[in-house]
Amino acid sequence: MHQSKLDFFCKLGYGKQDICKVLENLGQEALEDDVLKELIRMGSKPQDLESQAQPSLLKLVARGSHSASPRSKWLGEDESDSSNHLRPIVIDGSNVAMSHGNKEIFSCWGIQLAVDWFQKRGHTYIKVFVPLWRKEPPRQDSPIADQHILEDLEKQSILVYTPSRKVKGKRVVCYDDRYIVKVAYEKDGVIVSNDHYRDLQNENPEWKWFIEQRLLMYSFVSNRFMPPDDPLGRHGPTLNNFLSKQPVLPEPKWQPCPYDKKCTYGNKCKFYHPERPHQAQLSVADELRAKIKVPLSLGKEEEQCKHSL
């Protein structure tokens, strides 16, 4: 229990000495919330985890891989991606474009809106996957709007085409959803799509968990890309924490004691007392005893002085 709590708060960036000191004061069975409150009260601040980590640990390793060797760079990956505190973004281009086009037109402008939204947040790794046949001239049964955007995004190494070809006049298309999930899983990133990928969830149990926890759905409101503020529901992480590699815990809210200065619970009171922020909380009875002892001790000293004279 002690080791698990130590590891937990170390991951949050607190020093081992501060954590051990708090655990000694509160006891090994103390709740994590109480330990966090005590660390904040002590003035302990989380340190930068990236500066503490060894250079070899900063390299991303694919989930499920037992090899410690670094993976080869691909899809335009650069060294700055590993040091960024924001998660990599993998966008289902077809899903986003069709959603913006009301499921009637493949709207490339919708993809650009999504890319712009993540770039403004500071994400450095953004990949959009689109089938290669979308490069072909638009047809009546598959209309495309603003097709030039795909070319622009490809030049920026943001858009990636999944393979497709024609065999005897028939189009053979590779399953682009598998590319999307696989890359997002290996990069430990976020999938941007309104698709649930149920077939891929049944195909791989590890992918099932990843899709459930890392799928970011969205809406378009008047040409505005809008993901939800609570991607995993009301009781889940905020959007900022969902998109961050190092989630930020909310500041603890101190509820004032309803009894105010009349409280007799002393240091056992779990509520906030503004009148005693940096001193040990004593009960009223203990405070009275402490006040009575002072004049008594002073009286004894005076008597001793008289006898000595």
UniProtKB/TrEMBL annotation:
Residue intervals of the C3H1-type domain: 251-276
Coiled-coil residue spans: none
Chain positions of all zinc fingers (C3H1-type): 251-276
Cofactor(s) of this protein: Mg(2+)
InterPro entries: Rege-1_UBA-like, RNase_Zc3h12_NYN, ZC3H12/N4BP1_RNase_Reg, Znf_CCCH
Annotated GO CC locations: cytoplasmic ribonucleoprotein granule; nucleus
This protein's UniProt keywords: Endonuclease, Hydrolase, Magnesium, Metal-binding, Nuclease, Zinc, Zinc-finger
GO molecular function terms noted in the UniProt entry: hydrolase activity; mRNA binding; RNA endonuclease activity; zinc ion binding
Family membership: Belongs to the ZC3H12 family.
Record-given protein name: ZC12D ribonuclease
Biological source species: Balaeniceps rex
Gene coding for it: Zc3h12d
